[in-house]
Write a structure and sequence with these properties.
- With about 60 residues, the chain is an alpha+beta fold.
- The protein has one domain: Macrophage Migration Inhibitory Factor (2-Layer Sandwich), CATH 3.30.429.10.
- It has one helix and four strands; from the N terminus they run E-H-E-E-E.
- The strands form two sheets. It has a two-stranded parallel ribbon with strand order 1-2. Strands 3-4 form a two-stranded antiparallel ribbon.
- The radius of gyration is 14 Å and the shape is elongated.
């Protein structure tokens, strides 16, 4: 059973997240032949102040 975890900066709409889940699922089915009912997608949202780049806190836009 494929389990895909996507980490995003907070701020996407429920509709955007639903579309992401749909497209990631489709890509997984196409790429590895997994049955669609076996694919699991988890979106983990992180506050922008919790991101760091090159040792520095980096505020990342959700877009």
């Amino acid at each position: 059973m494929p389990f895909i975890e996507v980490t995003l900066v907070e701020g996407r709409t429920p509709e955007m997240k639903a579309k992401l889940i749909e497209k990631v699922t489709e890509a997984t089915v196409e790429a590895i032949g997994a049955p669609i009912e076996a694919v699991r997608v988890c979106i983990r949202e992180v506050p922008p102040e919790n991101w760091g780049v090159a040792g520095h806190q980096k505020f990342v836009s959700p877009e």
